[in-house]
Design a protein that fits this description.
about 160 residues, mainly alpha, 2 domains, 2 strands
């Protein structure tokens, strides 16, 4: 071994050893937390009566009321349908919206396409050239807003 290799070997060995010790300690802490979590989980499973979550299907009257209660705005999500347009066309689209909302409730699966949103920066105050003076807003689709309100109305 050359002199340089010996110096490198000597200087790297303690560092690697310390990293290994630190990783071992972190692993032990993680294992303890996992055991605690498992104990909590198994204690929850031993409970005899856990109420199930059951939703009734939505009616045309409910969905129409929800669509009417949404604020009329021109902002729109990626689907380019504003809440103002949704309200205008509510008599014609209430049937498919009911079908979709009931399908979501019965299957328990929220469609991925309704999870998408457009995130836009909105200016608050201060220097317009500084990005810290902006806050993000998410523009959701109008249909996801209807479903959210429908679920919320059932929850309260």
């Amino acid at each position: 071994m050359s002199q340089i290799q010996k110096k490198l070997h000597v200087s790297l060995t303690p560092t690697l050893h310390l990293k290994t010790l630190k990783a071992t300690r972190m692993r032990r802490k993680a294992d303890k937390k996992n055991i605690t979590f498992e104990n909590c989980y198994f204690n929850l499973n031993s409970v005899q009566h856990v109420p199930s979550l059951v939703f009734k299907t939505f009616s045309a009257k409910e969905i129409c009321a929800i669509i009417k209660s949404i604020k009329s705005k021109n902002s729109r999500g990626y689907d380019e349908i504003s809440t103002k347009r949704l309200k205008i066309s509510s008599n014609y689209i209430v049937s498919p919206v009911i079908y979709i909302c009931n399908k979501i409730i019965l299957s328990g699966i929220f469609p991925d396409r309704l999870k998408f949103s457009i995130i836009k920066p909105v200016y608050k105050k201060g220097d317009k050239r500084n990005c810290t003076y902006y806050r993000p807003i998410s523009l959701l689709t109008s249909f996801s807003k209807v479903f959210k309100k429908a679920i919320y109305s059932r929850h309260t």
